[in-house]
Specification:
Shape of chain A: globular
Largest sheet of chain B: 7 strands, mixed
Number of domains of chain A: 2
Order of helices and strands of chain B: EHEHEHEHHEHEHEEEEHEEHEHEHH
CATH architecture of the largest domain in chain A: 3-Layer(aba) Sandwich
CATH architecture of the largest domain in chain B: 3-Layer(aba) Sandwich
Structural class of chain B: alpha/beta
Distance between the termini of chain B: 45 Å
Strand content of chain A: 5-15%
CATH class of the largest domain in chain B: Alpha Beta
CATH topology of the largest domain in chain A: Rossmann fold
Structural class of chain A: alpha/beta
Number of helices of chain A: 15
Number of strands of chain A: 7
Shape of chain B: globular
Helix content of chain B: 25-40%
Radius of gyration of chain A: 23 Å
Oligomer: heterodimer
Strand order of the largest sheet of chain B: 3-2-4-5-7-6-12
Number of domains of chain B: 2
Distance between the termini of chain A: 62 Å
Chain lengths: 376, 324
C-alpha cells in the first residue's frame, strides 16, 4: 500500500511572524505588538535562561544525576512567548516539556528536576504558581484545562486556562474531546499546540493531513498558526487569544510552528528517523539568535548586556546543578504518603507492616539490610 | 421517615449534598432535562440550574477529565457514567489522573470527585449495560470504592461520598433501583467505611455487596426454613474494606462464602477469600468459597439468570461449605 503523507507547508496564509530569522521586525495586520526594547531584552534574557536550564539538565542526565530529561531545545520562543502572555490569574496545564513556561510562571527549575531524578512524582503545588503538574500521558491535561476554564465560568473568575500539548497529542481522543467541550461551553481557554514536527519518530504528517491549526474550524472556534520560533509573534498571538478567552468570546487554538532540535528525550536517537540536514535548516531559524540579532543590529544591547545575561544564566545553572545533586532520596516509608487525603485503613496496615519489616533489620549493617541477608 | 426507592433515595441524597455545599456539581449524559436515564438526578437541573447540573457532551473521558479541572478550581463534581459498560472510555482519566493526582502533588491537589456508576445485571439489558467492573477500581491505589445495597444506605452513602475529599467510585446496583424501604432522614449515618451485618446468624457467613445483598438475604430466609441461620455481611465499602467486621463474622460461624456478580477470577471475592483464609485460618471449618459470575463476557439477557449468582447457587455453596 502506498503511503500518503502530505507535507505541511510551514508558511501560508495567516502564518504570523513579527521577527524574521534574520532579526528584522515585520508587521502583521492582525497582531500589532506594542513592545519596548527593554521588554524585548527581557524576553531575550528569559530565552537564554531557559535554554541554559535545559542544557544543564541534559548534562545532569548524561552524568547520571537525572534518569531522563525531555529537552525543549528549539522551542524556547514558543514557551517564553506563551509563558509571558500568561498572567497570575491564568492557569497553565503543561505536558512534560514545558520547562520554559514553568520558568515564566515562577517555578524553580529544581522543582521540575525531582520528577526526572526519580525523587518525586512531581510534587509541586499547582495552585502556587498556576502551573499544573507535568502530564506524561499526552493529551489528558487538555481536558483538565477545559474543566478548569469551566470552573472560572462558574465562580466568576476573570482568568483563563491554557492547555499545552504537542502535535502528537492532537491524535488523542482527549484532545478532541477537549475541543468539543470547550466549544460547547464556550470555555475561557487557549489550546496551545507546539508543533515541533516530531512525535518521537513520527512526523506530523502521520498525525494530520491538514495543518493542525485548521482543526479548530471544525470544532467551531478560531485557529491560528504562528512562527513558534518567533517570541514576539507567539507573545502577540497568545495575548490576543487569552484576551479573547477572558472577555467571554471562547476558546481558540494556537499552533506554534517550531522544531524539536534535540532528541525526544535523552533516551531517544533521532538519527534513526530524521535527516541531520533538517536540523541545520532549523538552526537558521533559531529562536534565541534572531532576538540577539535584532538587539545587536539595532544597537539596543551591547556586549556587556549579553555578557551579563550569560553570566546570570550560568549562575542559575550552577544553582540547578547544586540543588539537583543535593536532592535527597525520599525515605522508604514516605511511599505511603499522600495516596489519599483522608487516609485509608488498608494503607495504615501496609505501612505498619513495612515499618516492622524494616525495623527487623535494626542493628545489621546497611548493606546486609539492603540485601535482605540474615532476615530469616 | 419516608418510603423511598433506592433511586429516589440517591436523588434525595444528591439534593441534600447540593444544598449543603454550593461547590457540588452534577455532570453527565442526560442528567439535566431528562433527569438521568434512571431518573437519579430528576429535578436537580430545575432547582439548581444548568451551571450546577451539567448535561455534557457524550464523551466519558471528557466527563472525568473536566471534573479533574473543576476540582483543581475548587469544585466538587459528581459525575454520572450512564452504564457500567460505558466507563472504559474514561478509564484512562480515572486510573492515570484521578487516582494519582493527590499523590503526585504531594497532597497539594485534592480531587473530591464522586463517580457514580449504575452496575450489575438482572434487568434484561442489551450488552454493555450489565457489567460489574468494581475490581478494576478497587485494584487502583488512590481510588476509594463503595456500593450501596438498599435505600437507606443509598441516601446516606451518596452524601458521605460527595463530602469525602478523596475520589470515590460509587457503584449503584441498578436492578435494585426500584427496591423500596423506609429511610430515616433524621438519623445519623453509619461510618462510610464500615461494613454492615445485614442479618445475624451462626451457621455460615455470606460476605456480599451491592445487588447481591438482597440475593443473600433471600437465600438466608430460605435457609432459615431449613433450620440454618446464615449471617449476611454487606461490605458497603469495597476499598478499603472493613476487615474486622468480616473476620469477626467468619471466625464466629467458621464458614465463609463470598457472593458477587462479577467474574470470580481475580475479583474482590478472591481478595476477600484470601484475607479471610489468612486471618481466620484456625477458626475456619471449611475453605472459603466464592459464588459469582463466570469467566465469560456478560451473556445475552435471555441466559443472564444462569450467569448471575442466585438463591440456589448461594445455598448450594452453603451446603458444600457446611458439608466439607
Amino acid at each position: 500500500m502506498t503511503e500518503v503523507l502530505l507535507p505541511q507547508p510551514s508558511e501560508g496564509p495567516g502564518f504570523v511572524q513579527l521577527l524574521t530569522p534574520e532579526g528584522q521586525r515585520v508587521e502583521h495586520p492582525d497582531y500589532a505588538l506594542d513592545i519596548s526594547d527593554d521588554e524585548i531584552k527581557s524576553l531575550y534574557r528569559d530565552l537564554v535562561m531557559v535554554r541554559r536550564i535545559d542544557t544543564e539538565a541534559t548534562a545532569l542526565q548524561r552524568q547520571g544525576q537525572l534518569g531522563l530529561w525531555a529537552s525543549l531545545l528549539g522551542q524556547e520562543a514558543a514557551q517564553v512567548g506563551a509563558g509571558r502572555a500568561l498572567t497570575e490569574r491564568d492557569f497553565a496545564f503543561p505536558t512534560y516539556r514545558e520547562h520554559g513556561v514553568a520558568y515564566c510562571k515562577g517555578v524553580d527549575p529544581v522543582t521540575l528536576l525531582g520528577l526526572f531524578r526519580g525523587a518525586s512524582q512531581g510534587g509541586w503545588d499547582p495552585n502556587e504558581n498556576g502551573f499544573g503538574l507535568y502530564t506524561i500521558v499526552i493529551g489528558s491535561q487538555t481536558l483538565h484545562a477545559t474543566g478548569y476554564a469551566m470552573g472560572i465560568q462558574r465562580d466568576g473568575g476573570d482568568g483563563a486556562a491554557m492547555a499545552f500539548f504537542g502535535d502528537g497529542a492532537t491524535s488523542q481522543g482527549d484532545v478532541n474531546e477537549a475541543f468539543v467541550w470547550a466549544g460547547s461551553f464556550n470555555a475561557p481557554i487557549v489550546f496551545f499546540c507546539q508543533n515541533n514536527q516530531w512525535a518521537i519518530s513520527e512526523p506530523v504528517e502521520r498525525q494530520s493531513h491538514i495543518p493542525l491549526y485548521r482543526r479548530a474550524e471544525g470544532f467551531g472556534f478560531p485557529g491560528v498558526r504562528v512562527d513558534g520560533n518567533d517570541v514576539l509573534a507567539v507573545l502577540a498571538v497568545t495575548r490576543a487569544a487569552l484576551a479573547r478567552a477572558r472577555e467571554g468570546s471562547g476558546p481558540s487554538l494556537v499552533e506554534a510552528y517550531t522544531y524539536r532540535m534535540a532528541p525526544h528525550t535523552t533516551s531517544d536517537d533521532p538519527s534513526r528517523y530524521r535527516l541531520a540536514a533538517d536540523l541545520e535548516t532549523w538552526k537558521l531559524k533559531d529562536p534565541v539568535e534572531r532576538v540577539k540579532a535584532y538587539l545587536s543590529r539595532h544597537g539596543v544591547a551591547d556586549a556587556s548586556f549579553f555578557a551579563d545575561v550569560s553570566a546570570a544564566a550560568d549562575e542559575l545553572a550552577a544553582h540547578v546543578r547544586a540543588a539537583c545533586i543535593e536532592m535527597a532520596d525520599p525515605e522508604p516509608l514516605s511511599l505511603f504518603d499522600h495516596v489519599y487525603a483522608g487516609g485509608s485503613s488498608l494503607l495504615d496496615e501496609e505501612r505498619a507492616g513495612m515499618a516492622a519489616y524494616l525495623a527487623s533489620f535494626e542493628g545489621e549493617s546497611p548493606a546486609a539490610a539492603k540485601l535482605n541477608v540474615g532476615a530469616h | 421517615m419516608a418510603t423511598l426507592t433506592l433511586a429516589k433515595a440517591l436523588n434525595e441524597g444528591l439534593r441534600k449534598a447540593m444544598e449543603n455545599d454550593p461547590k457540588v456539581l452534577v455532570m453527565g449524559e442526560d442528567v439535566g432535562q431528562l433527569g438521568g436515564v434512571f431518573r437519579v438526578t430528576d429535578g436537580l437541573s430545575k432547582d439548581f440550574g444548568e451551571d450546577r447540573v451539567i448535561d455534557t457532551p457524550l464523551a466519558e473521558s471528557g466527563i472525568i477529565g473536566t471534573a479533574v479541572g473543576l476540582s483543581i478550581r475548587g469544585f466538587r463534581p459528581v459525575c454520572e457514567i450512564q452504564f457500567d459498560g460505558f466507563v472504559f472510555p474514561a478509564f484512562d482519566q480515572i486510573v492515570t489522573q484521578v487516582a494519582k493526582m493527590h499523590y503526585r502533588s504531594s497532597g497539594n491537589v485534592k480531587l473530591p470527585i464522586t463517580i457514580r456508576i449504575p452496575y450489575g445485571g438482572g434487568i434484561g439489558a442489551v450488552e454493555h449495560h450489565s457489567e460489574s467492573p468494581e475490581a478494576y477500581f478497587a485494584h487502583t491505589p488512590g481510588l476509594k470504592v463503595v456500593t450501596c445495597s438498599n435505600p437507606a444506605d443509598a441516601y446516606w452513602m451518596i452524601q458521605q461520598a460527595v463530602a469525602c475529599d478523596d475520589p470515590i467510585v460509587f457503584f449503584e446496583p441498578k436492578r435494585r433501583y426500584w427496591d423500596k424501604a423506609e429511610v430515616d432522614t433524621d438519623s445519623s449515618p453509619a461510618d462510610l467505611w464500615s461494613a454492615r451485618i445485614a442479618r445475624s446468624g451462626t451457621d455460615a457467613t455470606l460476605i456480599t455487596y451491592g445487588p447481591s445483598v438482597r440475593t443473600c438475604l433471600e437465600a438466608s430466609a430460605a435457609a432459615a426454613e431449613e433450620g440454618r441461620e446464615l449471617e449476611v455481611v454487606d461490605l458497603r465499602a469495597l476499598s478499603p474494606i472493613d476487615w474486622e467486621t468480616v473476620f469477626t463474622s467468619a471466625r464466629k460461624t467458621g464458614h465463609a462464602i463470598v457472593v458477587a456478580e462479577a467474574p470470580v477470577y481475580v475479583s474482590l471475592a478472591a481478595e476477600v477469600a484470601a484475607r479471610v483464609t489468612e486471618q481466620c485460618f484456625y477458626s475456619l471449618e471449611s475453605p472459603v468459597l466464592r459464588v459469582g459470575g463466570y469467566s465469560t463476557p456478560y451473556p445475552a439477557s435471555r441466559i443472564e439468570e444462569d450467569y448471575l449468582p442466585d438463591l440456589d447457587r448461594v445455598l448450594d455453596a452453603v451446603d458444600r461449605a457446611i458439608g466439607f
